Amino acid sequence: MGRVRKAICAPENTGGKLKMGKWQRSLYQPVLPLGKDGKRVTGSAEHIALSRKAAGEGMVLVKNENDTLPLAKGTKVALFGKGTIDYVKGGGGSGDVTVEYIRNFYEGMKIKEAEGEVSLFHELPEFYEKNVKEQYAAGAVPGMTREPEVPDELVQKAKAYTDTAIITICRFSGEGWDRKCQINDEGYELFEDEKKQIELSASIFENGDFCLTNGEAAMVEKVKANFKNVIVVMNVGGMVDTSWFKDCKEIPAVLMAWQGGMEGGLAAADVVTGDVNPSGKLVDTYAATLEDYPSTENFHKSVYYVDYNEDIYVGYRYFETIPGAAEKVNYPFGFGLSYTSFETEVLGAEEKDGKIVVKAAVTNTGKRAGKEVVQLYYGAPQGKLGKPAKELGAYRKTRLLQPGETQRVVLSFTVEDMASFDDLGKVAKSAYVLEAGSYVFYVGNNVRDAKKLDFTYDLAEAKVTAQYTSLAAPHKLEKRLLADGTYEALPTDNGPVEEEGLERQDKLTLEGFLPAVKAQERKSFGELMEAAKTNPNLMNVVEGKETLDEFVDKLPTEALMT
Length: 562
Prior knowledge:
Layout: H1 2-8, H2 22-25, H3 45-58, E1 60-64, E2 75-80, H4 105-114, E3 118-120, H5 123-137, H6 152-161, E4 164-170, H7 192-204, H8 214-226, E5 229-235, H9 243-246, E6 253-256, H10 264-272, E7 286-287, H11 296-299, H12 316-319, E8 329-331, E9 342-352, E10 355-364, E11 373-379, E12 391-397, E13 406-414, E14 420-422, E15 431-434, E16 437-444, E17 451-459, E18 463-467, E19 479-481, E20 487-489, H13 525-534, H14 539-542, H15 548-554, H16 557-561
Parallel strand pairs: 2-3, 2-4, 4-5, 5-6
Antiparallel strand pairs: 1-6, 7-8, 9-10, 10-13, 11-12, 11-16, 14-15, 15-18, 16-17, 19-20
Helix pairs in contact: 3-10, 4-10
């Protein structure tokens, strides 16, 4: 029994180790400071501070008319939206992490109020706080709560207090949570948890959670009608509708605050008050509608597979290449505003030692300290292989530049990075190829505004940069998108009996499972988590609810043997 106890409660860096699956780990993540100086995990003060800094650095200001942000010192603010309280710290599923606490936007703004930067109308967030707590008590989880209707008398009291309102919208993102849930009937048998998730999604998000819910839309209209300065903070982790605020004159400022972790609410408060100058850039293209994304058409064709007909034309590669797609963009890839302004001067460009090297000077031409992200794109010649009009080759964020300060930056990437894979043998089968022609380059602060350089990289003939073989190649995709917006037909069959380079594998009757395991009834994650509530749980030992001996005594003999 001594060995068993050692294995269960194995100390750090010892031979006795307790191996846990990813879902089991979710039950035992104390996030307490460990190791030298308590810096081994995120529970340390240093890591929490870094989390806050990273969250603020990554937030993207997509709209700021009339310098609405940052808020002037002492501004009175009314906070609207249950997202003010219902903060989503990050994604779900195996991407989730356990933290000691989560600071929402209201808590972040209260800290700013204590520092004398803003003055809050507290009755509104207190209303949302009570409502969200009730929804949590009823079983709701962050990001999957309903927007309550705000009493008119409360809105009028807030209006009498201030003319500035901040609306917070939140969304959950994770495994099994699509922007719009739709299952076609193919005889697919849903797990009970899947059915509940789809029903929950449909009841909360009437039009899919890409769009505002009816409750959110009504709240937004009410705020627009009663407040002069309306700011929106988006606590989201995936693609959402931006058309409702892009050209709306009543909403002059929008911050994409993402899902910023345990200190995300405070990081957002740092940005709106100007303690942090936003320097994040969009890593996705935000189109006007969900249907504008090419993957939308085929995503729900089947629950068993997805046809990737868009091929390499995904994201900005689609919107910057396919004819007519550019006009569907609300906010382009790489876009992001600042509280100051910058000027970028290209000092030189060359090919050196197999690399494309561009040197630039970035100057802060505004009145606030800030950081800029310089982006280098390339455009490969349209030969026999399809190419996007622009592809990101390199980028560099400057240090914090004071007004008038200049920093020189160097951006580089290998020439081989511009090669394209030839799967059909149009130039060289199963090889990465640099096609003949002129390769052009662009420098700017987003894909749409990047300026073309005079420098080109020229190849007189095609060059193979890497040769591979074809193994397990797809054989059921019927067509794929080309740069001109048309499709090319692909060879299809019922599947190869023998793949090139792979030995034929005949069906064998095995005496048992390999490796040998005892047959177990299949259960969903939700069922496993429910069972974990009553099964022996090591967390009870951690929390002092029982001793290690008591925990071990509850384990079945079979578990102790394995």
